[in-house]
Amino acid sequence: MAQITQYLIWVVTLVAISSSPDYRVGLVGVEGTAVGVNWGRNASHPLPPSKVVELLKANNVTRVRLYDADPSVLEALSGSRIQAMVGIPNSMLHSFNSSLKAAQSWVHNNLTRYFSNGSSKIRIQYVAVGDEPFLQSYGGRYTPFVVGAAVNIQAALTKASIADQVKVVVPCSYDAFLSDSGLPSKGHFRPDLNKTMTQLLTFLTKHSSPFLVSISPFHLLQQNRNISLSFSLFRETSHPRNDHHKLYTNIFDLSYDTLVTALSSAGFAHMDIIIGQIGWPTDGAVNANSSMAETFMKGFLVHLRGKSGTPLRPHDPPKEAY
Fold first, then answer.
1. Is residue 166 included in any domain, yes or no?
2. Active site residue 132
3. How far is CA 267 from each of CA 169, 197, 270, 295, 308, rounded to the nearest angstrom?
4. Is 262 within a domain?
5. In total, how many domains does the chain have?
6. Which one is catalytic: 31, 75, 132, 320?
């Protein structure tokens, strides 16, 4: 989902949360899953960072995902107690993969400056290395640099003595994993990513970092004629998917468990998962409008609040979702 549409999705998310008293506590956390928002800056008329922070605080948002380390945004977050995931653009991956010094310089200029005496002016929780660098449309352009860049950023955090406070994650795209049958039990990572994923998952496990992934119900709806709009929007459906006696009533559980199977097949069955990006577009295609986006977000939050997890991870919902 392009960053230019993220602002609208973000606004719809806030509307979904605050339109009724039942949803006001959603972004603080839904009893098991901490929920935040993506803060993209590529809007035609972006609000000043200070105003955005006021809006976040007014809606009880306690977590944000940033796509870069814009100083004006980080300064605006200072003292707000909002936890931040700071992003590293794909364009920097080659440099950080090939140069530990470059990674150390970035950490010093963009993270260390906000830490002093063991505490932080800004609650930086994660560094996201790349922005969905495994997207199939990139044709493998960034894949060779991802793990090396993550390793060097981790080393830079360690040298700066903030590795115990800031975790390294790598945002994986919704098309990094798939199922040939359309059912979770056949889930696997894309064959071209097998070696890289093994390296990445080993790295994440070593440092107790979660697996960060985007899930795109709208793209899956467009690509699969066997998926209904009701199934995608958490509406009641009379045709659940049956996968070895496990019933799926919505597209989120189907996608999530496809990833769970892919992780299990790779030998990492118990890895924590964070939903780095999920939403519904507000324009640009059939079924893309603010009303359906609000319906999806409300349904997603109600689903998380139920704490039922998914058929393959019952009562174990994702740790965080943005």
1. yes
2. yes
3. 18, 11, 9, 36, 24
4. no
5. 1
6. 132
SS3 307: coil
The CATH number given to whatever domain includes residue 167 is 3.20.20.80
Residue 63: half-sphere exposure toward Cβ, Cα within 13 Å = 21
The range of the structural domain enclosing residue 212 comes to 3-177+190-216+272-321
Note down pLDDT in tens along the chain; length 322 residues. 444 344 444 554 554 544 433 443 334 455 578 999 999 877 777 889 999 999 999 999 999 999 999 999 999 999 999 999 999 999 999 999 999 999 999 999 999 988 876 556 789 999 999 999 999 999 999 999 999 999 999 999 999 999 999 999 999 999 999 999 999 999 999 999 999 999 999 999 999 999 999 999 999 999 988 899 999 999 987 789 999 999 999 999 999 999 999 999 999 999 999 999 999 999 999 999 999 999 999 999 999 998 889 999 999 999 999 9
294: left (phi over 0), alpha (psi -120 to 50) or beta: alpha
21: tokens are 């008293």
Is the whole-model pTM more than 0.85? yes
Residues whose CB falls within 8 Å of the CB of residue 116, separated by 6 or more in sequence, listed in order: none
Q: CA 224, CA 228: separation in Å to the nearest integer?
A: 9
> Other C-beta atoms within 10 Å of 21: how many?
7
Distance CA 92, CA 102 (A): 9
Contact present, 9 and 284 (Cβ < 8 Å): no
DSSP E strands, 6-82: 34-35, 37-39, 63-66
Would residue 227 count as lying in a domain? Answer: no
Q: Residue written as tokens 């140069």?
A: 99
Q: Is residue 61 within 8 Å of 10, Cβ to Cβ?
A: no
How does 164-188 read in b/e, with b if 16+ C-beta sit within 10 Å?
A: eebbbbbbbbbbbbbbeeebbeebb
Which of 7, 15, 75, 66 minimizes the C-alpha distance to 42? Answer: 7
Specify if 45 maps to a domain: yes
